[in-house]
Specification:
- The protein is an alpha/beta fold and 129 residues long.
- The protein has one domain: 2,3-Dihydroxybiphenyl 1,2-Dioxygenase, domain 1.
- It is built from three helices and eight strands.
- Strand 7 and strand 8 form a beta hairpin.
- 29% of the residues are buried.
Length: 129
């Protein structure tokens, strides 16, 4: 068994798609509509057969409440692993991404946190071996 998809709630799918493709560098994998429902996924260019990220609209009141509570508590919605946190921080800042936490050593990891402009904080993590 493997994880095929994971999701984050977003307040606007078109804005999220633009952010995750243009600012982060992911690519769109699937974009399928069925009435008002839209299945929209992105995937890392480094692992096109890896886990896809579903950008799910937070139009469910429970989803909106959860997303806002996590954001208000400064809790990242998801974590992406990177080879070099400082280098990735500089690349993303150069693309206009706004960070709420600069790269910081935390034991065996260096982490940084950014705002995805769609209601989420996202953590990047470089694990030291």
């Amino acid at each position: 068994m493997k994880i095929s998809y994971t999701k984050i709630f977003v307040d606007d799918q078109d804005k999220a798609l633009k952010f995750y493709t243009e600012k982060i560098g992911f690519v769109k994998k699937e974009d399928v509509s069925n009435g008002p429902y839209r299945w929209l996924t992105v995937i890392s260019t480094y692992d096109k057969n890896g886990t896809a990220l579903l950008l799910e609209l937070n139009d469910n009141p429970a989803a909106e409440t959860y997303q806002k509570a996590m954001y208000d508590q400064n809790q990242p919605a998801i974590m992406f692993t990177v080879a070099d946190a400082k280098k990735e921080y500089e690349r993303l800042k150069g693309n206009g991404v706004e960070f709420t936490m600069e790269p910081t050593a935390m034991g065996p990891a260096t982490i940084a946190v950014f705002d995805d402009t769609c209601g989420n904080l996202i953590q990047i993590s470089e694990l030291q071996e």
